[in-house]
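Researcher: Next sequence.
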Amino acid sequence: MSQGTAKRGRSGGVSEARERLLGTATKIFYAEGIHSVGVDRIIAEAQVTRATLYRHFTGKEELVLAYLDVADRGIRSQVASAREGAGSPADEVRAVAAAIADGIRSPGFRGCAFLNAVAEYPDPAHPVHQAVLAHRQWFLETVTDLLAQAGHEPADEAGRHVVMLRDGAMAAGCLFDPELVCATFLRGVEGVLSRRAE
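Model: Next structure:
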């Protein structure tokens, strides 16, 4: 559910209770996983009633989709901010990679919200799985487009390479020394950029 379709309170703004529910679910789902967290806990920690939850979300699945929508919008905003003023398309790729590395180094980092979610929803037809694929397709297309502008040919192969480097860094970043992981990731991205066809 996008911000534009969020249910609104009497004042016309997004409901405070909905935002509290979504904020609580986002924090817990990311830190502990989705299936391990029941709606009763989310209700208790958000300090709302069960009726309030169901007034804003049809159930846990819709809450999970809203959580992924928040994550998607956050990453899109992060990528857009990283690209602003970066200069060349190659520098934009570097800036996006640096922003990813900053996220890996941040306190409370627990990997990629989308990779974590898809591990819990392996059915390709499930709406959560579909939301993950849609986010990943956007990221792949964004990186591939930048690499094409930077002169890579074929850019789709280089784009897949960067996405795989990112996936590996996101998985390793919560298991090993994040500084070492980030340094390795950034070197890998630089290696992709250096292989640009003349």
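Model: Residues 60-83 form the longest helix (24 residues). The CA atoms of residues 103 and 157 lie 25 Å apart.
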